[in-house]
Write a structure and sequence with these properties.
Two copies of one chain form a homodimer. The first copy, chain A, is mostly beta strands and about 150 residues long. Chain A is built from two helices and twelve strands; from the N terminus they run E-E-E-E-E-E-E-E-E-E-E-E-H-H. In chain A, about 10% of the residues lie in helices and about 45% in strands.
Chain lengths: ~150, ~150
C-alpha cells in the first residue's frame, strides 16, 4: 500500500491535484455528461473510497441500484436525485443517503452542473440496471416517471 | 439498527436537519470555539462516520494524534492545519489526509470560520495529547512552533 499524500489542493475549482478527471464509467448510453475523480481509497485506511462526481448542465447519472450504500454530499451547483421512491432537490451541502438496493439517479439542473462527493465501501457489488418490470413499478409515481432517464 | 432517512437538508447554512449542533468535546482547555455535527454513522452501513466540524474565527481544535485516520474535506471559510510535520493552508474543497499517529490541529482564519467534513472509522482509538517531549520535537520547526496551540 503506497503512502498517500497528506494534502490535495485544487489546480482549478473542483479539480484536485494528484489525480485525473475521468469518464464516469464506460459509455453505455445510460448516463449523460458525467465525470469522476477518485479522492481517497485503500491507502487511506478506512475501507472506503471518496469520489467526486460532476454532472454537467442537463446531464444525469445512470439509474441503478446495488447492495452497497452511498453517502453523498452535494458541493456544487444544483440538481435533484431519485432516491428509492422520492425525488429530492439538491443544493450544496445537502446530504443524500442511498440505502442498500435503493434505486437512484442524479440529475443536474438545466443551467448548472451538479457536483457531489460520494463515499462507498471498497469491497462492493456491481450496480444493476432496471428491467422493464422495475421501470413499470417506478413509473407508477408520475413524479418519478417524469424524472427518470434511461 | 434504525433505518436512516434518505435525505438531510439544511435548516440554515451548514446546519443539517435531523441532528444537533454539539460541543466539539468535553471542555478541557485544549481547543477553542469548535462545534460538531454527526452526519452519518453505523446505520449507513460503511463502518464509518462523517462529521462536520466548525472552528470559529480565531479558534482551533485540539492538537492530538491517534491510530485511526482522518479524511477531511474543507467546505467553509478558511484556515490552516498542522498535519504530521507540515502546516497547510485550507480553502473550500481542499482535502487533508491525517495518517495513523500523525499529529494534527486545525485552526480557522482570524476573521473567518473553518468548516470541514471529517470521516473516521466507527471502531477507533481515543486521541492522545502531546507530552512535553512531543512538543519539544514539534517546536524544532519554527513554522510549527508558531502554529500550534496547546
Amino acid at each position: 500500500m503506497r503512502s498517500p499524500p497528506t494534502h490535495r489542493g485544487q489546480s482549478a475549482p473542483f479539480v484536485w491535484e494528484g489525480g485525473e478527471v475521468r469518464a464516469y464509467k464506460e459509455q453505455d448510453g445510460t448516463f449523460r455528461s458525467v465525470t469522476r475523480q477518485e479522492l481517497t481509497g485503500e491507502e487511506h485506511g478506512q475501507g472506503t473510497s471518496l469520489r467526486y462526481f460532476e454532472v454537467g448542465p442537463g446531464g444525469h447519472t445512470t439509474l441503478e441500484r446495488h447492495e452497497h450504500t452511498h453517502v453523498v454530499v452535494a458541493i456544487r451547483g444544483s440538481g435533484s436525485a431519485l432516491v428509492v421512491d422520492r425525488v429530492l432537490p439538491l443544493a450544496p451541502h445537502d446530504i443524500v443517503f442511498v440505502p442498500s438496493w435503493g434505486w437512484h439517479q442524479f440529475r443536474a439542473a438545466r443551467d448548472e452542473p451538479l457536483g457531489f462527493l460520494c463515499a462507498v465501501v471498497l469491497d462492493r457489488d456491481r450496480p444493476v440496471l432496471p428491467r422493464a418490470e422495475d421501470l413499470a413499478v417506478l413509473r407508477r409515481d408520475p413524479v418519478i416517471a417524469a424524472f427518470i432517464r434511461v
